[in-house]
């Protein structure tokens, strides 16, 4: 169950002062990538860094890293048990995400990190991560329509909720590729608080960060990748004088090219899970905005030779699936619909009915074969690999589906 608000997390952490400084990142899309970029850059500069993102990918504790390494399961379970006992003893009734947030923050204390890179779970203003009080820089990534039942039905309303992470005296970085309505709402909050703000544009890299412009020239990057990198670079530039005056952001920025972010435009070999030898594309795109990014990538990289795409798709129950899939699936494409299993620590997350997904996809004029596989994700993969016969195959629609595929592949490699 999702319950926004700060009272429960405040009670959970009232006797636990946070011993580290934070980078706080909100947004609908891109905040995970920005978190990964910043964690990697700080670690490259010798800064002991923790990262907390959500949701987890394969195991519940892999959403917490220390110096780019997933926290040890034993430490996670030890501190989680302590937090849950406190919750029960005090009768707080914290949500699953609040318990996870408190666990992550206490792990950062235990591991003596200097900087914690923290991604907002949902929204910003009332998200449990907004308990942070020692923030170096606030970052607002790309904003789109998502979680409207909690955050509002318009971009302006959602942007105001995201801008709720902004704090007096804390500089902020904003993705300048946001629409005018989002930028306007964020600027209003910046003005109210009198903040120093950098609204960054990937087509106009900072003159004080020449290595960023050089990186853009040398690598074939999509606009959203440049935007996320620009946000990370501007954030690094803003915070280093406060923690490492001897380090220069421009010298660290070339490290951006070595960042890996599983589940996002990830090229993946499915052997030994299936017999397919060619890599597939795995992406957690789960809303219209991220689907647009995926569609651009698929059109540019996979459809360039006039090939149709074979898809394996799933989605969370309650998602508006038509704009999610109609924007990326083309006439002639072949589609397998499936579900994902229970999400550890998030019992409220359910998969959409694959028959409904199939019905939605069949509305695409000229669509190729469409097959439903209910809870048989492996069956969907094997069928799709057979139909693709070495041609492009994409797995998309939900990060939870990506998680299931990676989990299946890990188990196959063990056996």
UniProtKB/TrEMBL annotation:
Pathway: Cofactor biosynthesis; tetrahydrofolylpolyglutamate biosynthesis. It catalyses: 7,8-dihydropteroate + L-glutamate + ATP = 7,8-dihydrofolate + ADP + phosphate + H(+). It comes from the Eukaryota. Its EC number is 6.3.2.12. Keywords: ATP-binding, Ligase, Magnesium, Metal-binding, Nucleotide-binding, One-carbon metabolism. GO terms for biological process: one-carbon metabolic process. One of its GO terms (molecular function) is tetrahydrofolylpolyglutamate synthase activity. InterPro entries: Folylpolyglutamate_synth, Folylpolyglutamate_synth_CS, Mur-like_cat_sf, Mur_ligase_C_dom_sf. It is an enzyme of class 6 (ligase). GO terms for cellular component: cytosol; mitochondrion. Signal peptide: none annotated. PANTHER family: DIHYDROFOLATE SYNTHETASE-RELATED, FOLYLPOLYGLUTAMATE SYNTHASE-RELATED. Belongs to the folylpolyglutamate synthase family. This is Dihydrofolate synthetase. It comes from Aspergillus puulaauensis.
């Amino acid at each position: 169950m999702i319950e926004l608000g700060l009272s429960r997390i405040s009670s959970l952490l009232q006797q636990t002062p946070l011993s580290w400084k934070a980078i706080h990142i909100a947004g609908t899309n891109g905040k995970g990538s920005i978190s990964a970029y910043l964690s990697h850059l700080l670690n490259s500069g010798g800064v002991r860094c923790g990262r907390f993102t959500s949701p987890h990918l394969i195991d519940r504790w892999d959403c917490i890293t220390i110096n780019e390494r997933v926290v040890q399961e034993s430490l996670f379970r030890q501190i989680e048990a302590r937090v849950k006992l406190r919750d029960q003893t005090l009768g707080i009734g914290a949500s699953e995400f609040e318990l996870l947030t408190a666990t992550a923050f206490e792990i950062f204390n235990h591991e003596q990190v200097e900087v914690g890179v923290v991604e907002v779970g949902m929204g910003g203003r009332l998200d449990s991560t907004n308990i942070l009080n020692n923030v170096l820089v606030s970052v607002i990534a790309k904003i789109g329509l998502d979680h409207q039942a909690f955050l509002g039905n318009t971009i302006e309303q959602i942007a105001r909720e995201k801008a709720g992470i902004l704090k007096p005296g804390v500089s902020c970085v904003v993705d300048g590729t946001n629409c005018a309505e989002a930028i306007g709402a964020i600027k209003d909050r910046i003005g109210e608080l009198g903040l120093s703000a950098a609204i960054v544009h990937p087509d106009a890299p900072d003159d004080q960060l020449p290595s960023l412009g050089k990186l853009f020239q040398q690598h074939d990057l999509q606009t959203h990748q440049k935007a996320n990198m620009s946000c990370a670079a501007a954030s690094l530039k803003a915070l280093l004088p406060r923690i490492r005056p001897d380090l220069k952001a421009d010298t660290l920025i070339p490290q951006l090219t070595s960042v890996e972010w599983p589940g996002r435009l990830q090229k993946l070999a499915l052997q030994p899970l299936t017999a397919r030898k060619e890599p597939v594309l795995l992406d957690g795109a789960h809303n219209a905005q991220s689907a647009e990014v995926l569609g651009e990538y698929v059109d540019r990289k996979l459809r360039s030779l006039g090939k149709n795409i074979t898809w394996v798709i799933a989605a969370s129950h309650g998602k508006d699936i038509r704009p999610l899939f109609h924007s990326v699936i083309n006439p002639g494409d072949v589609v397998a619909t499936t579900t994902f299993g229970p999400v550890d620590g998030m019992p409220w997350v359910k998969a959409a009915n694959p028959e409904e997904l199939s019905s939605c996809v069949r509305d695409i004029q000229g669509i190729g074969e469409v097959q439903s596989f209910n809870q048989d994700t492996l069956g969907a993969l094997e069928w799709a690999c057979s139909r693709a016969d070495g041609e492009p195959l994409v797995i998309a629609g939900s990060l939870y589906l990506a998680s299931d595929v990676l989990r299946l592949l890990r188990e196959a490699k063990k056996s």
